[in-house]
């Protein structure tokens, strides 16, 4: 036990966090010694109601802030609830450090209260997991956790803290540390310049090159580098769901989100032929995963692929490609420099036709939506909500969608206003309920920037308790709940695959606006399309949290390829 006034391990951990630029932690008072030490030096605790949500708050903070976030939890059941958000962060490449209390060292392997093998628990869902064993290694392990989270392909790290160790005296460090490893990407490795030159020559001489940008293209500095390359090399750019926001979607060479959004009344219905005809495809920061490639059917089989990614194992995982291993921003800047030395007259000559084709696709998409947007009878269509939200957005806005259909409405119906505008969706594992906590984290990361959260009623049921978190911290966040009374994707997917759906797909009536009011938030229910716009404007102008419960059409579904010729048979 440390003597009065002597620095403890807990205080040393708090000091190390502050050195790494941590001004806020997501916790629920545990490990208490660490949280008390953090609050004593001005590190703010955002107290969540449930660990699952706290981990997602840290994820949203890291995505929006460009800094590694910290979440804390107790041992045992609290630790197990961190697994889902850490798994999402691992798949989505988001740096989070989890500080998890453990039983006292003398009690280990004796069936102590809430004792669990946390190393085994966290190994599948983190990049790195370790336990501090001695008081003289605190800074070593805290630094290692931040290095693991923010270097290479970012992801979560877990640091385990025995409760008795936190009370011990921490010996003075003979050489005080000053390094700050809190920003990400931590390093900016540039791809091999010989490979960059080869890629530049492929692009310059291609008949119809295109870019498909994933979530890695949103790393700090990458959207600006991609925008410069798009303009200088006259390249049309598509994005995946997670890559949305990497380019300004009003740029004449921006073709929007593709992936599986290719059914009737989708932009992809009109823009996909541009990718199908490509002879060279530059992949930027994408895992070439199922959702991003429409079950690996999106990329034209005859095209030459160039793949820029920080993770060397993702290049060639699903498609053979010219390897550009490195940071997205550094790689795109190097590629732009190499292209500047080549003859790009062929690319420039092709640009007017490309711009016309892309503009025609956007116009056809708008025309397809017109009948839905003009409908006044019956339940509100989600497309109407998105259309009312669109003119209220600014380039600094962040739009957060929960998993399942909420994500698809956000990425498929809204249009990005600037390179680097943020659209956050939990598409790493796509767990229901993470939209609200992601939005809380994003708002706390940039309090002066507007944030809007959208969730379906099925997903929002996982996160109701965090309405009290919003009210307690006075976080000015509009939350739009699209209430259709069903578990939409499950119902529709089961109908397509089996011709029937289970009894779990329908919910009993829930008054979400009343729940919000009971938690101290403003809550409004919207039942007519004409009420949506005024309600959104009110919620965005409010100085506190506002929940808008929008009663939406239970038969509305995004234009996914799965429904093309099945649920959407009559529209083909």
TrEMBL record:
Query: What Pfam families does the annotation carry?
Result: TPP_enzyme_C, TPP_enzyme_M, TPP_enzyme_N
Keyword Amino-acid biosynthesis carried by entry: no
Q: Which cofactor does it need?
A: thiamine diphosphate
User: What are the residue boundaries of the Thiamine pyrophosphate enzyme N-terminal TPP-binding domain, all occurrences included?
Assistant: 8-121
Task: List UniProt keywords, sorted A-Z.
Answer: Thiamine pyrophosphate
Instruction: Report which superkingdom the organism of origin falls in.
Output: Bacteria
User: Does the keyword field hold Chaperone?
Assistant: no
Q: Which residues form the Thiamine pyrophosphate enzyme TPP-binding domain?
A: 407-550
Q: Which residues form the Thiamine pyrophosphate enzyme central domain?
A: 198-335
Name the coiled-coil region(s): none
Record's family?
Belongs to the TPP enzyme family.
Q: What is this protein called?
A: Acetolactate synthase catalytic subunit
Per the UniProt record, the source organism is Marinibaculum pumilum
């Amino acid at each position: 036990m440390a003597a009065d006034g002597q620095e403890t391990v807990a205080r040393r951990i708090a000091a190390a966090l502050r050195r790494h630029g941590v001004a806020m932690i997501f916790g629920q008072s545990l490990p208490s010694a660490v949280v008390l030490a953090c609050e004593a030096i001005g590190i703010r605790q955002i107290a969540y109601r449930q660990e699952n949500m706290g981990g997602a708050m840290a994820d949203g903070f890291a995505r929006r802030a460009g800094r590694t976030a910290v979440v804390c939890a107790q041992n045992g059941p609290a630790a197990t609830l961190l697994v889902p958000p850490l798994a999402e962060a691992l798949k989505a490449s988001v740096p989070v450090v989890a500080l998890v209390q453990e039983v006292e060292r003398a009690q280990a392997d004796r069936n102590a209260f809430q004792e669990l093998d946390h190393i085994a628990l966290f190994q599948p869902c983190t990049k790195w997991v370790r336990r501090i064993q001695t008081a003289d290694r605190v800074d070593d392990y805290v630094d290692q956790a931040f290095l693991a989270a923010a270097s290479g392909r970012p992801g979560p790290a877990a640091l385990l803290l025995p409760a008795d160790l936190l009370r011990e005296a921490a010996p003075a460090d003979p050489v005080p540390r000053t390094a700050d490893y809190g920003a990400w990407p931590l390093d900016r490795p540039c791809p091999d310049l010989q490979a960059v030159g080869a890629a530049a020559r492929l692009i310059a001489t291609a008949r119809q090159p295109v870019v498909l940008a994933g979530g890695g293209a949103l790393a700090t500095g990458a959207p600006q580098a991609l925008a410069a390359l798009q303009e200088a090399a006259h390249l049309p750019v598509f994005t995946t769901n997670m890559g949305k926001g990497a380019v300004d979607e009003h740029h004449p060479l921006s073709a929007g989100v593709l992936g599986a959004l290719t059914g009737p009344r989708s932009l992809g219905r009109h823009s996909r032929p541009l990718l199908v005809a490509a002879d060279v495809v530059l992949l930027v920061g994408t895992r070439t995963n199922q959702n991003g490639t429409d079950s690996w059917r999106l990329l034209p089989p005859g095209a030459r692929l160039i793949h820029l990614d920080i993770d060397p194992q993702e290049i060639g995982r699903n498609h053979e490609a010219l390897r550009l291993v490195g940071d997205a921003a550094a790689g795109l800047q190097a590629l732009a420099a190499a292209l500047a030395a080549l003859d790009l007259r062929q690319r420039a000559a092709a640009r007017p036709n490309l711009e016309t084709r892309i503009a025609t696709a956007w116009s056809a998409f708008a025309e397809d939506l017109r009948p839905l947007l003009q409908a006044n009878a019956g339940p509100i269509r989600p497309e109407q909500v998105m259309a009312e939200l669109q003119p209220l957005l600014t380039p600094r806005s962040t739009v957060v969608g929960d998993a399942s259909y909420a994500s698809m409405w956000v990425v498929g119906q809204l249009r990005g206003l600037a390179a680097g505008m943020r659209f956050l969706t939990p598409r790493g594992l796509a767990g229901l309920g993470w939209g609200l906590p992601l939005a809380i984290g994003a708002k706390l990361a940039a309090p002066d920037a507007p944030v809007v959260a959208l969730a379906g009623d099925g997903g929002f049921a996982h996160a109701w308790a965090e309405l009290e978190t919003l009210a307690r911290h006075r976080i000015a966040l509009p939350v739009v709940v699209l209430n259709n009374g069903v578990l939409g994707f499950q119902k529709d997917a089961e109908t397509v695959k089996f011709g029937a759906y289970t009894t779990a797909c329908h919910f009993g009536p829930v008054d979400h606006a009343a729940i919000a009011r009971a938690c101290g938030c403003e809550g409004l229910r919207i039942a007519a399309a004409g009420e949506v716009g005024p309600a959104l404007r009110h919620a965005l102008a409010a100085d506190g949290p506002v929940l808008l419960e929008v009663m939406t059409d239970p038969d509305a579904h995004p234009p996914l390829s799965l429904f093309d010729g099945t649920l959407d048979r009559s529209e083909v």
